[in-house]
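Lecture notes, unit on protein representations.

Consider one protein chain, 407 amino acids long.
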Amino acid sequence: MAEQAYKYLIVGGGRAGAWAVDGIRQIDADGSILVIGNESELPYNRPPLTKDLWFGKKTFEKIFIRPQEYYTERQAVIRRGAGVVSVDPGAKTVKDETGEIFRYEKLLLATGGRPRHLTIPGSELEGICYYRYASDYHRIREQAQPDRAAVIIGGGFIGSELAAALNHIGVKVAMVYPDDYLVARVFPEDLGRHLQQMYRERGIGIFPGNAPTAFEQRNGKFITHTKSGDSLESDILIVGAGIYPNVELAEAAGLRVENGIVVDEYLRSSAPDIYAAGDNANFPYQALGVRTRIEHWDNASAQGKAAGRNMAGANEQFTYLPMFFSDLFEFGYEAVGDIDPRLEIFADWEKEFDTGAIYYLKDHKVRGVMLCNIWGKLDRARELIRGGHQAPTEQLRGLIRSEKEAA
């Protein structure tokens, strides 16, 4: 089987890989591009899978990042449904599941992550959904009828968003999670407990400070056994326990891996001509002076584009401050920076637990900002973080307001 050669080879058909095509073409109009993805769909946005698709704000056809024509016009070849199984940095080749070998000049590993599976009895029973992919959305959407019951394991982003989505269409939902309150890795405790109560008032069963100990199937139903002694029966069982970064290709190829593929400020890995971007990349977060890995779509977009540009010769440091967002019923937020409730917290509410800015501080310096039902103010939040804004917390009051309040 003859090798095929490409100037740019992108492993991963997700958001980072799609945006890398953009970045490459901004610098190099002609260099050949191959994108290899293991999913059958074109690159798509994941946030709608737990948000807009369930609330009628978007149709499935609208979640794709680009139509096929976009890649065709830019002479980018998309291979779908057959992932890469090995990378040889010395030979500058990759091999896919079909045995085909592709040669590259520059390689991007945009392999993302995969759902973290539980390791308790019954955790691999047929029908349990470790929710992440478009195929998961289709399967759960078909099962989610108003007369059905669902148990969701996890109280983070996936769990909280799916609970709201399923409740919205009439499914009876119960949530089991180990933290004391909802989305505890992001929300200050008072906000998290307020939203948790809001979920209860909407009829969602809440089992915080808890964890499943075993799953079983009985008479066509799932039974979730918890450490507190509950036995929860459901038609649908979803686990949202985070993701593992897909670093196996990099490890086998001898790249440096520490909680992700280690890259420098140009998104270059430890191997010549190999870059990484997105959920799998451990990068220097220059605005905060730390090294980290971020599992959000905006970071994947920005890193993918930046990596593509640098693969094509731009030689630009990645200094972007990525944002993330969520919608939990009528409570929506955008956030940027270090959103860690273990930091010092100052909440500047216009309407308590509804509209306002929450500041996350260290040594009185702004490290992160969450904007609750305030829109269009992320750049102002970024300014405060980049500038290391330092002041007594009361001096933060009024720095960011909603348009209505500002008027």
